[in-house]
Amino acid sequence: AETASEMAVVWVERTGQVAGRAVPELVDNPRDPRLSPDGKRLLLVTGQENDGDLWSYDLSGRPPIPLALPNDNRFPVWSPDGKRVAFLQNPVGIMTLAADGSERTPQRLRAGVAAPHVWSVAGELIFTVLANNGDIRASPAAATGEVRDVVASDSSEYDAALSPNGRWLAYVSTRTGQPEIWVQGYPEGTPVRVSSSGGYE
Fold this sequence. Notes:
The protein has no helices and 20 strands. It has strands at 6-7, 10-12, 18-21, 27-28, 31-35, 41-46, 53-58, 65-68, 72-78, 84-90, 93-98, 107-111, 114-119, 124-129, 135-140, 148-151, 157-162, 168-173, 180-185, 192-193. It has a 4-stranded antiparallel β-sheet with strand order 5-6-7-8, with no helix packed on it. The chain is globular.
């Protein structure tokens, strides 16, 4: 029987028209969708808001693979080669594991509550620290390595996205008093506001 939290995960055209289902079955409260680099798999967090389960859905129709079910899992991202996944296991930290389901115990990359956004081709993990109003930082996608500020201010900055060529970073900032989309060169550049009446993600 269908419940209120079961939803269809669909493809949407740029016009806003639904093109069809990405996943054949209804999914319990799906969120944080992330398409694999080859476009053949989809990461989804499902279940209750404070008890997220991380799944990998094969878009050719094979059954989904459970990656991380215990604990509160959020914000998954793919490694550039599609072989690994990084995600926040709240409140433990940023974790990583094999994308094929062969590992049952995630390895911790970073302690602290942070939302991964990008695992770059250069091997950097770009994430938002969720405490202290939110700042965007980067570090090597490894258990060691220096963490550096990418966008850090008194305002909130989050929802970072890197351009396919790795040269531009888009993100949300509240520096105008409301969330707006900004773009700047990466790893460094001058921020330019590109939205006019609010924006997210």
